[in-house]
Structures are given as C-alpha cells and as structure tokens.
Amino acid sequence: MQEEDKKILQLLATIREKLQEQSISLKDVPSDQIQMFMNAAFRVDLQYTECKKDLIANIAKLYALAEQYGNGRQQAAALGMIEQLLSVWLKHEDVYNNEKQGMKDEIHKHQETLKLVKLYHKNKLTDDVIEKYVWGDVARLKEKTNVKLFCEISNEIRKKNIERIRKKKKIKVAFLVKDSAEWSVDALYRKLAEDERYEVAVMVAPFWLGTEITVKDTYDQAVQYFQEKGYHTIPMCEMGNGCLYHYNWHLLQEPDVIFMLNPHYTAFAEASNVLNFPLQSLVIYIPYGFLIYGNIHDQYNQLSHALSWKIFWGSDVDIEMSRKYADCGDSNAQMSGYLKMDGFYNGEESVVRNIWKIPQGLDEKKVKKIVYAPHWSIREAVTGFGNFDKTYHEFYEYAKSHADTTSWIFRPHPMLRAGLVQYGVFETEKDFDDYMKKWDELPNARVVERGEYIHIFKTADALIGDSISFLAEFQYTHKPLLFLTRKENTFNDFGKMLIKILYTAPGDDFEAIADFIQNVVIEENDSMYHQRQEFFDKYLDYWKRNGQLAGEYIKKLLDETLS
Lesser CB count within 10 Å: N end or C end of the chain? Predict the structure, then answer.
C-alpha cells in the first residue's frame, strides 16, 4: 500500500471518529477530502477494469447513504463501510488470494453437485448417498438455470425420502422459527404432538436483520416464549460474549420433515439456512403471513420455494401466482387455507377486559377498541410500506386525549425497533422502548410486541396500520381497517384486489386518520362492509372451499403420504 493511501485511510478514520462523537456533521467534511477517497480508488491497480468501476460505484452509493442518515453515529457507520471498502481494495493482492481460495471452494461445491447429477442419471440415488448431501447441493442446478434437471432430481430425492420415512416407527418433525410473532401453526403442532406416530420440536434460529442487540433480544425472547408455552424447544445456537455458536442438524438428529415459516433464507444463520437443510429431510413451507406487496420473486420464486416439497397457501390466488411466477410452477402448491386463521373458525370466546385496558367506570361496549399496527419499512426498504416516522407522535396524543371513547393496542412489527434505529428515527433501542413505555402507561392502551394476536383481532373494532399481512388477516373479523398508504406501495395480483375493499389514507395525513376513527369506528358508518364480505367469500373463506380447517388439511395430507 502506498504511503499516500495510508494517509487517506487515516483521514477517513479521523472523520469517522469525530462523527461518532457527534462533534461534526458529514456536511462539514470538505469536498476535496471526499475527492481524495475517490482518487485513491482510481489508483488501485486492479487486474479488471470492471472491478474498479464497481468499487467507485459502491463508494458513491455508500456516501449517498451516509448523507441520508440523521445522526453522527449512523453517518460514522456508513463512512466506516467506505473506509473498510477502500482498505480492502488497496490491499488487492490479499483480496486476489482470498478470491482464489473462494473459487477453489466454489469449484469443490460444484463438483459435489456434479456427482449427484451423475448418480441420478445412473439411478443410484440411494438413501446412503442422500444422507451425505444438503439441499444446497441440488439448488446449484437451479442457480445455473438448469431448472428442468433441478426439478427432476428434487422430485426423485423426495420420492426416496417418502419411501424411507414410511418405514419408520417415529417421524421426526421440526418447525423452524425466528420469532414468536410469526408462529402461526399452533393447531398443527398440537395435532402432530398428540399423535404417537410423530416426534415434534420447535427449532429457534436467529434472523440476521436489524442491529446486533435486536437480533439477540428477538432470539432470546423467542426461545423463552416457546419454552414457557411448553413446546419441545431446541435453540439452534448459543449467544454470549459477542459470539454465536451454531448447532448443526447432525447434532440435533436430522428431522424427517422440516416446516419453514419464513422464506427469506439468506437472513438466517448458516446452520438454519434452507440450503444447509439435510437432503434426507422433506421441506414444507407455510407462509407466516399473507403476501400482497409487489416483489414477486421474494414471494413465489426464491430457492426456498423451489426446495419445498409442499407449500400450503392461504388462497387460490396464491396457487395462480405460483403457476404464473415460480420457475417450477405450482407442482408443490396446496390450497390449505391460512393456518393462522383457524382460530376464527373454532368459536373460542375471548374476554375483552383481559385483553384491552378499559378505564375504570367506562362501559367496555361503548369504548371502541383499535389496533395500531405499523410496519418497519419506513425508508426505501424492501417493501416501502412503513409510515410510522410521520405520525407516531399524533397517534400517541390521540390515544391519550380520547381515553373515554377509545382503547388501543399498539402492535409494532417485530423489526420496527431495529428499523427505527437503523434509519435514525430513534437514536437507540432504548429511546424506542421509552416510547412504547409511554403507550403502556396510558389508562386506555397496551403494547403487545410479540406472541399470538388472534384474540386481539377477535375483540377489536378496527385496525389502523400498514403491516402488510394484517391487511388480509383482519378481513376474518369483518371489521373496518384503515390502510396507511405511501407512494412507494406496490402490490401483487392479490394485493391489487385487496386494497380496493379497504379504507385508505395517506400515512402522513393524521386529519384523515382521525376522520376514519370518528366516522367509521365511533359512529359506525361502515360503508364498505358489503364489499369486504364479498371479497372474503370469494378469496378467503377456505372452510367453505375445503370443508375443513387448514391444520386438519395439512395433518391429513401428511398422514396419507407418510403412513
């Protein structure tokens, strides 16, 4: 590394430290110094010009990102990424050597996949062979655009797995979860656990989105939740002293069937990534929520979808979209209905005063019970639905000043806490926790961060928010919902139909929000009731379609296939 480059890196470090201390703003950094960073990148003697272009482009993106951050610490973090990027590329020989080793590792992986292909063509995919591989070894075929061969080999492996499982006295079933908030399969878990043919466990894994603090808190809370609920709980890792220790499937005794509730496999820790699931396991995907936003690939055509033996969808529209958008079509798609909504059909009653805070002396029947459910994506994030940063003060003040007519449950998305800190809306996680505490201290409000929420929906009079899946889930209550919109909203085929039967208001227009509360909720002028009912009857009433609950449908299919 040249002496001049060392000086530039030192300058970067100094600026970053001052930003961290919040003694300067990024705007205070002279433009000529920023140009020095760019010049350093141009001087890097890389073998490929395209690499240099990528480097410059990435630095520019990172700097633009830094400018958007609202505080010095976040700006420092972004500048730290630039510092790291420059440092690595200025030591390009080391990068080259690392890349060379990476290429060797990748070649080895492809050789393993090639072995599988050869064994398949020779009809030698025996149980002994299958147990040595993981699903990622098959997935490489799809990644290399050989979709037809991928589907053929996957189906052959599943056929072999089913034959083997049928011979077993006990079938091991694992539910892989990251958060209690996405737990939607309680009824199915109980049905399987009561059947002596099955041995059932909940495997909790960390999900690497958000700050380190939030990831650890979410993981710890999930483990505690499932343990306290009496589930057979297996933590997939140990967290402590800044370290993460992963368990692998061999140590946990590989399950015969693995249920996934979340398709975003790349955010899971390595051991709990679907690509590292044992090849001898049947993978089943049950979506933890309704899919309505516009990213079709994320919803229907990730590797996690293609690697699934079965996907249990909530609506016939999902089947149609699988057929339309998935590389492997709808061959693994089943319309079971939405398992989480089984609770709306079982007739269980919920006690209002056990759920909602009603001020002393008020008639609970005259107090309108409202769920406030904000999504986490408040910036140009994956989905672009969140509006929390625009009106969170107004929501709190409204609840505070209308304690005689309204009761509230604040139900934030599990990732909202991390998102608000990441985007500088709150300085720290504690600042957001303090905001939630203010809600919880109101005589007419309660914060419910995690856990099941069907009993909340059942007893609510309305929902206001932009949490995506809730827009469809709340339709099972037949109560009004106000969807808080923003210009970035995009929808899939199902979502485009759904929003037509919802009340809507711009997420930054609290006057319109207050008008909905007064006219639709308090005065009960619900003009869209019949439209919602027609939509429900046509697209969401799976009991009417199947003649059974979703949990019953899935259990029956497993029994018939594996017995």
Answer: C
Please give the Cα distance from 147 to 141 (Å, whole number).
7
Domain range holding 9?
Answer: 3-90
Strand 445-447 and strand 406-410: the pairing is parallel
| Residue 537, domain CATH | 3.40.50.2000
**pLDDT string in tens for the chain (563-residue length):** 456 667 767 777 777 677 666 666 666 666 666 666 656 655 544 444 444 455 555 555 555 555 554 455 555 655 665 566 556 555 554 554 555 565 566 666 777 787 888 888 899 999 999 988 989 888 877 765 578 888 899 999 999 999 999 999 999 999 999 888 788 898 899 999 999 999 999 998 887 766 677 778 888 888 899 999 899 998 888 765 554 566 777 767 789 999 999 888 777 777 788 888 999 999 999 998 888 887 777 788 888 899 999 999 999 999 999 999 998 889 999 999 999 888 888 766 666 667 899 988 888 888 999 999 999 888 755 567 889 989 999 999 999 999 999 999 999 988 888 888 888 888 888 999 999 999 999 999 999 987 778 889 999 999 999 988 899 999 999 999 999 998 888 888 999 999 999 999 999 999 999 999 999 999 999 999 999 999 999 999 999 999 999 999 999 999 999 98
Taking only Cα atoms into account, the Rg of the chain, rounded to an integer number of angstroms, comes to 26
CA–CA gap between residue 563 and residue 557 (Å, rounded): 10
Q: What is the largest CA-CA distance in the chain?
A: 78
CA dihedral 74, 75, 76, 79 (to 10 degrees): 130
Q: Are residues 312 and 460 in the same domain?
A: no
* Phi, psi of 336, rounded to the nearest 5 degrees: -90, -20
Residue 511 backbone dihedrals phi, psi, to 5 degrees: -60, -45
Closest CA to 164 of 527, 462, 561, 508: 561
Residues 338 and 366 in one domain: no
Tokens read off for 234: 């297996």
- Residue 11 tokens read as 């300058």
Which residues, in sequence order, are CB contacts of 226 under 8 Å at separation 6+?
177, 180, 183, 202, 204, 233
Q: Determine, yes or no, domain membership for 103.
A: no
Strand partners, 246: 237
Whether 106 is covered by a domain: the verdict is no
| Centroid of chain to Cα 456 | 22
